Amino acid sequence: MDELDRLDIAAALRGDDEAFGRLVRRHAPAVASLLWRFTRDRLCCEELVQETFVEAFFGLGRFRGDAPFDHWLRRIATRVGYRFWKNRDRLRACVSLDDLDYPASEADLDPGAAGALVHELLGRLPPPERLVLTLMYFEDCDTCEIAQRMGWTRAMVKMRAFRARRRLQAIARREHLLEKFGWMS
Amino acid sequence: MDELEIILKLARQARRETPPPLRVTAAVLEAIRVPQPVLPIRTLAFLAVAAEAAAVLVLVLAVQAWTRSVDPLTLLYPSLEASLR
């Protein structure tokens, strides 16, 4: 574990709020980057990041310190994001994929537009399957890491990944993704 | 190239995206400084003992009621008493 993190965690456990503030400032960008995959609404993302750090603060006594602090935070953030999907995101109306901007060539393909498009496609999956593919595609997680983060079995993650890919392919076919990205092949 | 390969390629591109800058530190510190409602340990212990006593009482009554309902001899007692009278 990072020495700065270790010192600040020890100070925060002794009641030094400012030390926890330093931890927040240091790790907020990484947590925000992860939670941006769960919602692309700025205010919503801000709330989820706050929720993650508040949960981390109250669970700080349970942090064993045998893994880097940011791994532990990512685990909390993933669960916060997943809970958000299960509670609120199912109520949201899906944006029609036809309303999104499609790049005409590789040069036009900027990361933001690509992110928005994949977010909308994955948003059509049920939360457990969406989570598995979100972590695989955006975070480069393998099945073992996803299982650890969520407390699921590896077999369950593999099964959800398989189902999610099959369902996603059907959605993409329905949306004529091959025609829209014909320039890729 | 199939649909999933296109999505994978888009996701790889999206990994380079950075979210808008967020200001969360002040809100987090404010949230953790709010005193959390804490019940004194004696109150918690009292509630636990009371709940346990209630649970034991309910269990005893339930066992008695069940025993009475399944024991055929208990059905004989009222008729036996009547014949003795």
Summarize the structure in words:
The complex is a heterodimer of chains A (185) and B (85). Chain A is built from 9 helices and no strands. Chain A has helices spanning 3-13, 17-35, 42-58, 69-87, 111-122, 127-139, 143-150, 154-174, 177-180. Chain A is elongated. The termini of chain B are far apart. Chain B is elongated. With 85 residues, chain B is mainly alpha-helical. Chain B has 4 helices and no strands. Chain B has one domain. The interface between A and B is medium-sized, with 41 and 29 residues.
Along the chain, the helix and strand elements of chain B come as HHHH
Which outline of chain B best applies? Answer: elongated
C-alpha Rg of chain B (nearest Å): 34 Å
Structural class of chain B comes to mainly alpha
Helix content of chain A: 55-70%
Number of strands of chain B: 0
**Separate helix tally of chain A:** 9
Radius of gyration based on Cα positions of chain A = 18 Å
CATH class of the largest domain in chain A: Mainly Alpha
Keywords:
heterodimer; A: about 180 residues; mainly alpha; Rna Polymerase Sigma Factor, Chain: A; Arc Repressor Mutant, subunit A; 2 domains; 9 helices; about 65% helix; B: about 80 residues
Brief rundown of the structure:
The complex is a heterodimer of chains A (185) and B (85). Chain A has 185 residues and is an all-alpha fold. Chain A has helices at 3-13, 17-35, 42-58, 69-87, 111-122, 127-139, 143-150, 154-174, 177-180.
Set down the secondary structure blueprint.
The complex is a heterodimer of chains A (185) and B (85).
Chain A: H1 3-13, H2 17-35, H3 42-58, H4 69-87, H5 111-122, H6 127-139, H7 143-150, H8 154-174, H9 177-180
Helix pairs in contact in A: 1-2, 2-3, 2-4, 3-4, 6-8, 7-8
Chain B: H1 3-14, H2 25-33, H3 41-70, H4 72-84
